[in-house]
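Q: Here's a chain of 345 amino acids. Please give me its 3D structure as tokens.
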Amino acid sequence: MKNPSCPKVDIGGQAVLEGVMMKAPEHIAVAVRRENGDVIVKREQYESPAKKHKWMALPFIRGSVNMVQMLSMGMKTLTDATDMLGVEAEEPSKFEKWLAAKLGKSVDKVVMAVAAVLAVILSIGLFILLPNVVIKLFPAAATGGMLLLKNLASGVVRIAILIGYILLAGRIPDMYRTFQYHGAEHKTVYCNEHDLPLTPENCRPFTTLHPRCGTSFLLITFVLSIVFYSVIDVLVLMVTGFDLGGNYLLRVLSRLLLLPVVAGISYESLKALAHHDSVLTRILRWPGMQMQRITTHNPTDEMLQVAIVSMKTALSGLPEGEMTPEGWVRLTAEQVDALTGVTRA
């Protein structure tokens, strides 16, 4: 039986604190469940930058555009979800208040911007600066083999840091629940892709591992960076006789400058692997799928309901319910049950 209210399209998503964001082609929806059982929902119009600037949709370029866009959208979504939950935010620092006054922006926007900058700095430190320190342990390269060995070593360290970081994060109770909502997001996406009515019963049997997940994108990026940077380093050595690994600052700078290229290649690889099913593609996407075992967990039916509400809102519009002053919709537990096809005794 098909679900006429939820047409089959590629849906992206993101788990947030006690909720799920779903992104349809033209709208974004966020749904979170408060402690009293109510689900708060919001919906915003979305316009892809590629509609305004056609060149942003070109292969390999769109990957870099998507990376920047997802970072910005992700930070905003996390802030929105916190507001919708009614969680009191921490008092802004004196620096953030001063910056808001100087820029003429609201404190909330400044806090979000500062958080985004700090996240980028942390990512650069953990995944670019630190892994490249190990290169200092190797002698100057005179052959392509030594360059490959250097890049392989830094790549292994980078992947180990990523896995360790995720494993540690998953030990935090709130993050474990967020990983459960991540699983709810994937199960709901699968249900929609199979043209089934969106109910917890139909979503439940699906796996929490999805080929279009951002976790797979990260691993693909890290693995392809080893190959890509090795090719670049060999070309530089052949043309100039200069070993990038021998100069830490130049090596790090080259990695930062070439990151958009790596992101573009990785994005195209992810799309190709996700939309083609063969023995080869299944083998190539297997590592990324297995890595999702630490970023997704089986959700409860209540979590599946939140993901379903978010998807239906993104695709079909805000559900009927009490409108809050902020423009959100408040759904009682009974209304959520009716919307998601749940009958309780």
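Q: Can you summarize the key feature?
A: The first helix runs from residue 49 to 52.
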